[in-house]
């Protein structure tokens, strides 16, 4: 008895996946819930586990194949069962019969033979009409008069007919692009499904939204001092959860989004959808590229709850264990290029969201404070937004309010 392994439900709006890697081969023993195959979707890598213990008897979809939800992946048979023999490929053949003649080519297009010109004399009126129009009886062809004589009506009919214009020459086919010469020092690797999807979505954002970026800078002195003072007590109280700067920016963004709801909205057709909640997307790096897991209802979480969620997302992103529903439903996103050393960038929107905040490297710089030059830890901030829904005044005001919340974190506690 064998158990069929099928492609499971992959989540909302995801109907296909690519076979990334088979973890077992035919004949291998498998245990209950042991991973058999990895499927790569537009968002994450999903493992398909065996529902029964036994032996993988055959594989129906090879690595690299694209499969739909519900499609068969393979079969698991009873323990110790021999793998099913590989099925010979079926080739289409055509029947042949001795004595069959070669096919008769199809007949050419039917043409009506031209009426031979009449050699009979035509009347003087016809001759004058032909001469006046530089025509000959042969050019006009056969006539409709008695015994095929040419009549004045035949000539007038020819003259009244529209002149035949030569058919335009077909446009030359575009020259085939010459293949790029290969170099032995190069390596070609097929793009993963995730990378293809990232590329398509980023290009969609550029083609669809009226994207604009505004910048500001924030003095991180107060946030750094607060973190340095309480990080040990914070970690002890919250069972190893570390206090980072991302929770400051999430809380500051939530407060600013309440004041400027258009930054948290989206366009749906000819309507603007305002959200009375904040699902905060936080970009994290994974083995196959950048993913943006979503902290649901971030407005209800404490600093500890936000840091715990971010830490868990980061670990599972590195292990490729994020779930599809954890990557959907975001209303606003934050990306931190500063962890890689970026000093300034212009982040691209994550559709259908209307704005994204870019954090950057904290760098000591001389700044003017109360008429004096001081060295302060400064960070550039970038807010990319969809100008179709967010005015410049709203975008700038949002970023200023976020700056104020970070430079004086007490505002977050007092909800100012």
Question: Helix- and strand-based class?
Answer: alpha+beta
CATH topology descriptor of the largest domain: Chloramphenicol Acetyltransferase
- What's the overall average pLDDT, rounded? 80
Helix count from the secondary structure assignment: 9
How much helix is in the residues?
25-40%
The unreliable regions are 88-118
Give the CATH superfamily of the largest domain: Chloramphenicol acetyltransferase-like domain
Sheet with the most strands, sense and barrel status: 7 strands, mixed
Please indicate the count of domains.
Answer: 2
C-alpha-based Rg, rounded = 37 Å
**What's the N-to-C terminus distance?**
67 Å
| Count of β-strands | 19
Can you write the helix and strand succession as a string? Answer: EEEEEEEEHHHHEHHEEEEEEHEEEEHH
CA-based shape: flat
Label the CATH architecture of the largest domain: 2-Layer Sandwich
CATH class of the largest domain: Alpha Beta
Task: Tell me the fraction of residues in β-strands, as a range.
Answer: 15-25%
